Amino acid sequence: MISLEGLQSGVTGEDRAIAILKVEHNSLTYDWMTFVPPNADLATYIAASEARIKAEIDAKEAAWAAIDLATQATLDKSDIVRADNPDYYASRRAEYPALADQLDAMWKGADAMTEMAAKIAAVKAKYPKP
How do residues 58-72 score in pLDDT, each as one tens digit? Predict the structure, then answer.
């Protein structure tokens, strides 16, 4: 069973969204997300995506099981068995400092540029490339 927990709308100028889901599969519950095409009926699209989403979960669980126990002890399972952010670049764009602020920091240089680089790095760390 898949239930919709929320919807992350696209940023300005974007016409796509990300569905935030709870997926019950193999007696476990997973937090998952998937890209929703523009103009798609949300319920129909999620229902049609159920087999694909469960296959993704199975593949991630298999990847986790293939890791030796010593390495598993150093990792958190949720770092392996999680949805890839289907639209990380839109999420990044929504949180990056405004371009004018970035240019201003470049103009000022020194501390302002260091602070701006840290803000950008934090956004990149929050939304890593899949």
Answer: 999 999 999 999 999
Cβ-count burial 38-51 (b if 16+ within 10 Å, e if not): eebeeeeebeebee
Statement: the pTM of the whole predicted model exceeds 0.70: no
Q: How far is CA 52 from the centre of its chain?
A: 17
48: helix, strand or coil:
helix
Distance between CA atoms of residues 10 and 115, nearest Å: 27
Q: What is d(CA 57, CA 114) in angstroms, rounded to the nearest whole number?
A: 39
Identify the H or E element spanning 15: none
Handedness of CA 18, 20, 26, 28 (dihedral sign): positive
Residue 18 CA, chain-centre distance (Å), reads 9
Gyration radius from the chain CA atoms: 18
Give the integer Cα–Cα distance in Å for 103 and 82: 36
Using 50 as the pLDDT threshold, list the residues of the chain that sit under it.
Answer: none
